[in-house]
Amino acid sequence: MASSLTAAYPWTTSPLVSCAPMRLIANASLATAVSIAGGLGFIGAGSDINTLSSELSKSRDILNKAKLSTNTGVLPIGVGFLIWGAPLADTLAILSKPENIPAAVWLFAPRHPNQLKDWADGVRKASSNKTKIWIQVTSVREALEATKLASPDVLVVQGTDAGGHGAAQGAGIISLVPETIDAVTEFCDSSSSTPLPFFVAAGGISEGRGAAASICLGAQGVCLGTRYLAANEATIASGYRDAVLRASDGGSTTIRSSVYDQLRGTTEWPAGYGGRGVLNASYRDHEAGVSFEDNKKLYDDAVASGDKGWEGEKARLTTYAGTGIGLVKSIMSAEAITREVRQDASKILSGAPASRL
Ligand SMILES: Cc1cc2nc3c(=O)[nH]c(=O)nc-3n(C[C@H](O)[C@H](O)[C@H](O)COP(=O)(O)O)c2cc1C
């Protein structure tokens, strides 16, 4: 086990800023840009590995051009999987190729907790222990379960403010992170075989103040999703990105629900998860009792209308984003976001006033 989180990823600078493996959105260009800026970028493979080989190949090209190498035989990026759906054996066949071995694999949302062990064991074996295991958890119970079953190198502690999928019922990171750290530390202290993982906070962190607060809560690093939706390198429709930039006051303008999954047909998620996104006409109609068939028809019409489906009071397209949406103010490069968040957090942690820097 490395002496610090950043020591495990030698190209990174403390405090570690990572980009969430957002399915379809975090591809090679976003993940590599975050790593090039001294963070750790994750490609979001999700449950589907059809484009994984080509995204890894694109990543290698970008990293070679940037002359970013780890000298340890791993690619300085990670890949995230939704393990309720991603095929383990086929994934390992890709990740075990010497040119593809990522620095980290991120596991989220098992259909059964034992899947965590199968994936962690499989990835460690396929990479000869070179790939670190990150597991995203949404509660103290899940954190203990993941630690006991899979001995992760990193636990990503996801609070309920997070954009995209998370626990339908959950706590914010201000209580979840320290309680999780205490419980996992107590378990690891009493176990002779389970080293203490590093902790990364996720959910509602959009800039340096949230990142600094997470470090004060005991995390060694932070993971941002929503903020990177406004990165130049994100693979995202302009209507979606504009909706993120327009929104503010995310506690009242976003909602965690399964309505958007139903309308999009992404209903394979295990029970207990919901997706947080901008609260729009699709959700309002669902709450008002509009039938699923009618709501779906309106949704499909909105899909056909393209970027207009994200505009104004009638917006109804899915806009997964977290409560930190109001702190996302402008489109920036992923490198600039990564450096800004890290540097602002460092300034605050070294005693500078915690106003917007
Ligand atoms: C648009 C979007 C897509 C996401 N997709 C995934 C995913 O495919 N896999 C995953 O593990 N987490 C996914 N997440 C959740 C992130 O891992 C992370 O917990 C979250 O983005 C952190 O909160 P924040 O959005 O407030 O920064 C997604 C988040 C967003 C906003």
Task: Put the structure in a nutshell.
With 357 residues, the chain is an alpha/beta fold. It has helices at residues 28-36, 52-65, 88-95, 114-126, 140-150, 173-190, 208-216, 238-246, 250-253, 259-264, 281-287, 292-304, 334-349; strands at residues 16-19, 40-46, 75-82, 102-108, 132-137, 154-158, 164-167, 198-202, 221-224, 254-257, 273-278.
Any overview of this molecule?
This protein has 357 residues and is an alpha/beta fold. The protein folds into 2 domains: 6-236 and 330-349, Aldolase class I (TIM Barrel), CATH 3.20.20; 238-325, no CATH class. The protein is built from 13 helices and 11 strands. The protein has helices at residues 28-36, 52-65, 88-95, 114-126, 140-150, 173-190, 208-216, 238-246, 250-253, 259-264, 281-287, 292-304, 334-349; strands at residues 16-19, 40-46, 75-82, 102-108, 132-137, 154-158, 164-167, 198-202, 221-224, 254-257, 273-278. The strands form 2 sheets. Strands 1-2-3-4-5-6-8-9 form an 8-stranded parallel β-barrel, surrounded by 7 helices. A 3-stranded antiparallel sheet has the order 7-11-10. Strand 1, helix 1 and strand 2 (40-46) form a beta-alpha-beta unit. The protein is globular, with a radius of gyration of 19 Å. The mean pLDDT is 96. The site of flavin mononucleotide has 29 residues, from strand 2, strand 3, strand 7 and strand 9.
* Percent helix: 25-40%
Helical run tally: 13
Share in β-strands:
15-25%
What sort of overall outline do the alpha carbons produce when their principal axes are compared? Answer: globular
Alpha carbon gap, first and last residue? 34 Å
> Strand sequence of the main sheet, in spatial order?
1-2-3-4-5-6-8-9
What radius of gyration results from the CA coordinates?
A: 19 Å
Architecture per CATH nomenclature, i.e. the level-2 architecture of the largest domain: Alpha-Beta Barrel
Q: Determine the mean pLDDT.
A: 96
Q: What small molecules accompany the polymer chains?
A: flavin mononucleotide
Name the CATH homologous superfamily of the largest domain.
Aldolase class I
Counted beta strands = 11
* CATH third-level topology of the largest domain: TIM Barrel
The largest sheet is: 8 strands, parallel, barrel
The CATH class of the largest domain is identified as: Alpha Beta
Order of helices and strands: EHEHEHEHEHEEHEHEHHEHEHHH
Low-confidence segments, ≥5 residues, pLDDT <50?
A: none
Count up the domains: 2
**Which structural class should the secondary elements be placed in?**
alpha/beta
